[in-house]
C-alpha cells in the first residue's frame, strides 16, 4: 500500500507538516507513516566515556513511542472531524528508530512504496535557516525520495494548480509525468514555468523547448498541462511573482548539484525558494526515486 512518510521531531512545525500530509493522503488514497529517530549521546568526562544503560535506552524509546501514539491519535481524531465526507480515511502508522533520520530512511526497504518524504520548515532566520537548508539538501540526496517541504503557517486546501519550474534539462520530463499522478486526484492544472533573465529565447533553446513540450503532449497522458515563459527576471523573482500572482497551491522544483564555485557564490535556486516560499514545495533531484508516483501514472 502506498504511503506518505513524515519525519517528525514533535515540534509545532513538524506537527503542521504531518497534518498537511494527512489531508493530502485523503485525496491520494494512501496511508501515512510517522517516523521519529533519536540518537543516544556518548557522555564523556575527564575519567573516560560511558554509554547509556539498556534500561535508560528502553525508557527513552518508550517515551518517544508514547509521543508517537499521542500524535497519531490526535491527527486521526482531527482528520475524522474535519473531513467526514471523504471516503478514504488514511491509516496512520508510526515507527521509532535509533540513528540519523535520513540515513535511517535510506535503509528502509519500503521506500519503493513511498510517494515522498514530508518535513516541516523552520520560520527562523540566520544560522537556523542555513541549518535547515543543509537539512533539506541531506534529505533530498540521502533518502532518494522526493521531499515535500511544508512551511509552518501553511494550511491544507484542495490543490487546483501545481507549478513546475523547469529549465528543460535532466529528467524533467519524467518528473512532470510523475507529477501528473499527484495532480490527477485533484483534477489540478500543472503549469510548466520557465524563467529567463533575458527577454528573447535563442533558436536552439526554442527548438529544445518545442521538443520537450511535444514529448509532454505525447507521453504525459494528462490533459491539464500548460506552459508559461516568464522573462526578464531571475529565477527567484519569477517564481516569487508566480507565487504571488499565479494562484498556485504547490510549487515543484528539481534540485541539481552545482559545481563548488556555484555552491559558494550563487547557491541553489531550489534551496533559495525553499527558504522563502509560503507555499508547500515538492523537491526532486535528478536521482530521486519516482516509483511511488510512476506506478500510478502509467
Task: Fill in the keyword field for this structure.
10 helices, 2 domains, alpha/beta, 298 residues, Rossmann fold, globular, two-stranded antiparallel sheet
Helix-strand category: alpha/beta
- N-to-C series of helices and strands: EHEEEHEHEHEEHEHEHEHHEH
Uncertain parts? 259-265
CATH class descriptor name of the largest domain: Alpha Beta
The fourth-level CATH homologous superfamily of the largest domain is HUPs
Annotation, overall tally of beta strands? 12
Major β-sheet strand ordering: 5-2-1-6-7-12-11-8-9-10
Q: What summary fits the major beta sheet?
A: 10 strands, mixed
The shape, in one word, is globular
Number of domains: 2
CATH second-level architecture of the largest domain = 3-Layer(aba) Sandwich
The CATH topology of the largest domain is what? Rossmann fold
Describe the protein in words.
The structure is a single chain. The protein folds into 2 domains: 3-150, 3-Layer(aba) Sandwich (Rossmann fold), CATH 3.40.50.620; 161-297, Rossmann fold. Helix 1 links the parallel strand 1 (3-7) and strand 2. The chain is built from 10 helices and 12 strands. The protein is of the alpha/beta class and 298 residues long. A 10-stranded mixed beta sheet has the order 5-2-1-6-7-12-11-8-9-10, sandwiched between helices. The chain has helices spanning 12-28, 54-82, 101-106, 127-142, 172-183, 203-219, 235-245, 260-265, 269-276, 291-297, and strands spanning 3-7, 31-38, 43-45, 48-50, 92-98, 114-120, 147-150, 161-165, 189-196, 225-231, 250-255, 281-285.
Amino acid at each position: 500500500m502506498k504511503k506518505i512518510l513524515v519525519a517528525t521531531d514533535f515540534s509545532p512545525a513538524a506537527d503542521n507538516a504531518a497534518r498537511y500530509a494527512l489531508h493530502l493522503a485523503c485525496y491520494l488514497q494512501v496511508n501515512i507513516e510517522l517516523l521519529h529517530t533519536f540518537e543516544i549521546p556518548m557522555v564523556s568526562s575527564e575519567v573516560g566515556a560511558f554509554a547509556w544503560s539498556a534500561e535508560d535506552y528502553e525508557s527513552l524509546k518508550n517515551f518517544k513511542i508514547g509521543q508517537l501514539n499521542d500524535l497519531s491519535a490526535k491527527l486521526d481524531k482531527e482528520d475524522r472531524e474535519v473531513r467526514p465526507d471523504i471516503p478514504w480515511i488514511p491509516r496512520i502508522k508510526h515507527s521509532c528508530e535509533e540513528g540519523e533520520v535520513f540515513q535511517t530512511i535510506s535503509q528502509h526497504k519500503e521506500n519503493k512504496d513511498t510517494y515522498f518524504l514530508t518535513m516541516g520548515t523552520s520560520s527562523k532566520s540566520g544560522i537556523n535557516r542555513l541549518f535547515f537548508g543543509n537539512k533539506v539538501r541531506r534529505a533530498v540526496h540521502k533518502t532518494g525520495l522526493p521531499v515535500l517541504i511544508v512551511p509552518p503557517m501553511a494550511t491544507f486546501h484542495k490543490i487546483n494548480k501545481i507549478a513546475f519550474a523547469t529549465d528543460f534539462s535532466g529528467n524533467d520530463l519524467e518528473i512532470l509525468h510523475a507529477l501528473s499522478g499527484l495532480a490527477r486526484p485533484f483534477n489540478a492544472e500543472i503549469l510548466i514555468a520557465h524563467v529567463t533573465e533575458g527577454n528573447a529565447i535563442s533558436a536552439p533553446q526554442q527548438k529544445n523547448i518545442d521538443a520537450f513540450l511535444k514529448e509532454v503532449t505525447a507521453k504525459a497522458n494528462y490533459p491539464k498541462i500548460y506552459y508559461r515563459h516568464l522573462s526578464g527576471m531571475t529565477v527567484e523573482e519569477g517564481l516569487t511573482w508566480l507565487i504571488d500572482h499565479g494562484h498556485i497551491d504547490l510549487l515543484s522544483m528539481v534540485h541539481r548539484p552545482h559545481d563548488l564555485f556555484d555552491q559558494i557564490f550563487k547557491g541553489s535556486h531550489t534551496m533559495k525558494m525553499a527558504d522563502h516560499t509560503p507555499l508547500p514545495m515538492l523537491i526532486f533531484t535528478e536521482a530521486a526515486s519516482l516509483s511511488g508516483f510512476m506506478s500510478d501514472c502509467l
